[in-house]
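Lab meeting, action items carried over

1. Structure of the two-component assembly. Owner: GW. Status: complete.
Input record:
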Amino acid sequence: MKIVILGAGQVGGSVAESLVSEANDITVVDIEPQRLRTLQERLDLRTVLGSGAHPSVLAEAGIDDADLLVAVTQSDETNLVACRIAARMFNVPRRIARVRATDYLANERVLGEDGFDVDLSICPEQILTDYIVKLVEFPEALQVLDFAGGKVSLVAVRAFAGGPLVGHPLKDLRRHIPRVDARIVAIFRGDRSIVPDGDTVIETGDEVFCLAAAEHIREVMRELRRMDRPVRRVMIAGGGNIGLRLALALEERYSVRVIEHNKRRCELIAARLGEALVLNGDTTDEELLESENIGEMDLFVAVTNDDENNIMSSLLAKRMGARRVVSLINRRSYVDLLQSGQIDIAISPAQATIGTLLAHVRRGDVVAVHSLRRGAAEALEAVVHGDRESCKLTDRRVDEIDLPAGTTIGAVVRRGQVLMAHHDTVIRPEDHVIVFVTDKKNLPRVERMFQVGVRFV
Amino acid sequence: MRFLAVVNVLSRVMLLFAASMALPWALSYAIHDGAQAAFGYSLAATLIAGLALWLATFQERRELQVRDGFLLVALVWTVLPGFAALPLMLSIDGLAFTDAYFEAVSGLTASGATVLEGLDRLAVSVNIWRGLMIWMGGMGVIVLAVAILPLLGVGGSQLFKAETPTPMKDTKLTPRIAETAKGLWLVYVGFTAACTLAYWLAGMDGFDALMHGFTTMGLGGFSSHDASYAYWNSPAIEAVAIVFMLVAAMNFASHFLAWRRLSARPYARDPEAGAMLLVLALAVFAVAGYLFLTGVYDEFGTALRYAAFNVVSLATTTGYANTDYGRWPVFAPLLMLFLSCFVSCSGSTGSGIKMIRAQILFRQLLRELLRTIHPRIYNPVKLSEIPVSNATVFAVLAYLFMYVTSVVVLTLLLTASGLDVVSGFSAAVASLNNTGPGLGEVGPSATYAGLTDTQTWICTFAMLLGRLELFTLLVVLTPAFWRK
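Predicted assembly:
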């Protein structure tokens, strides 16, 4: 597939990175030569210097025969104009734009066909915000993901001694909570993944991935660990785009404090926020943290755009008594360094945000893709089409399907109803199937299974 | 400074003002109430003076600047009462200039403090003139001039701001200031008509309904009866008065927008209206409960009726009374006097500190409290979710300081001239807030007639000071203003 990516920043870079590995022709456009150079050194792709909103630049990037335009520059307007030009002048079949301003999203005509003609708009900041809000709502979870429009949730929990199921085989889950239909789709023990079956015994320290209807999440988590008291006080380090969105999302339900070092930015976010307190200072200022009762915080979230700052302030907050600390960390090597350490949850913005975008690039009718364990594993929701002849899934029982190793079918959503997949569940056309892939190199095979064979056409 | 250009505009405002005298004059002729000559001479005098000034300064027509605006407003508000006092002097025997001028200022500033006794025996047209002064002064004579005369060009908005100052400077509701002024007056006229009709339906006679329609919407407490609203002793009339006093105490910009867009949303977005209604509701029930518990009234319903009318009347700076609340235990009238300092909204026909400033000050207080707990906090003062700049907060603080200083100085002057402390303090506050009646010697059952000439002039000055929100008048009195 030929793909043109506008913007070589954090988002553009990681989109390029994940698409390059899936064997596509990629051209990246940016106005900063430095950014292009670093990207080109690292990845096998072409770069074009210039503004993505200019037709001549787009033409140079080979938009004429591109299959996909991914406009993810910092500027909404550049992205929108590029989409419109790509659609009308160059007939690019699919166009994705990063749009941050809610004003553009408020009226669908702006992005629609008679507007800027955008197929899919994504806002990485909003995705990250939703991610963190889930962590505030479910403080016991490492990650909570939604499928099927919020009906099904996949939750990652670390098992702790004290959870009723810990030390017992999985088949006991049914006995413990008979009313709840839940399915444990994967267990990670250290770096190893275990394909769970009924006799697998959960040990303390396991990272357990469990699928259940959204309303049953809490009951399932209660099986795996002692529940914490709910979050009341949240401190957000960094009042940037994500910090502000997060504070806006949380301020009505929780007591929120935001620390921001830039005074102008402080004024701006204080004007936007109602209940949340805006504090001016360094997120690593021990005295400030102390005077703001860091020890009483249920959650400390470091969301500045500086990895080192986030890590240091999180470590400091943890040492000073914050119950749980969450940190945004862009660099993979830092994450590996830290995860088992004192930071409870390290979030990789790139991994967390590009799932939606990748879903659009995938073969097959993929509705949602979520990266798990910082990109090592993936959960995807896809729609089954065709019949028994043309598709490898349709009209088969789950135990008849030849899945690659480490891949589990977790749940099926049929006409809005959630069915947990058991060995005898039969998959029908138009079902949404939620598949869990523990080893990413099996992904292409899984995607191919959702594709309808040539015979069908 | 273009003094002659200012005088030229003044002369045209005077001609407009002379035209307004035609209404009582015509009325007087129609019903032969004996004041025909008084209005005829006054009209002629105002007309001639206006024309003379206009001819003298005809060559000097020029665009006015900010400074000229302040001077014009100050001149208009001191010169016009002189002419407005003429019909009163000519029609009422033995009324001295000091008292007539006081009465005219009290009318034009929509205060409602009176030096006249025997109001029931005054000529009908004189009472209508008293009401008309309040009505014109309530919305602002210059706003009227901007609306009617193609008078002031671009500088109009400066004059507008000088006459109706608010802490939030963005008073333009339409692209052109004349449109704004027209819109405000149209809404004002509409409400006045509705109010007059409601009074008439509730049982007033036609002239009383018109006169009280004028004074209710202008929020000045002139009545055509010595007993004020106790004359009718009618809950229906009092209810009408309460409703329209509340309407007049809201920001007319909200009324205007609501009327323009035919929706109630502007009221919801108005930061003041809700706060005003809340404060008034609390105060009414507090006073009613207090009067009931202290045994002033045997029934809670009666207490509520008197509390509601008098609290709303005083707090909105109107100044009607339906009973002698001066005889209530002093807590109640004192509370009402304090309420009059801040209850009415900016852009209304009321006076005082204004609700918007009170809100800004209150939020500033909360901000300082929070800052002592969290020294590094950033929390701007916000009104309706919109941050208020520090410059505005400082301006409001300066205003408050000036206001308190004025109260102190005026009280000292009045007590120095021989008034007792309750009368002196309440007269100072009531004049500065354009409320009208105070307590003690100037209470609801008495008038300002008992004051000496010095005291009357002090109160006259205080009313002008309050109507022009201190700074417009004071800035003209500073030497820096006159320096070239």
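2. GW to write a short summary for the group page. Key points so far: The longest helix of chain A spans residues 124-137. DSSP finds 16 helices and 22 strands in chain A.
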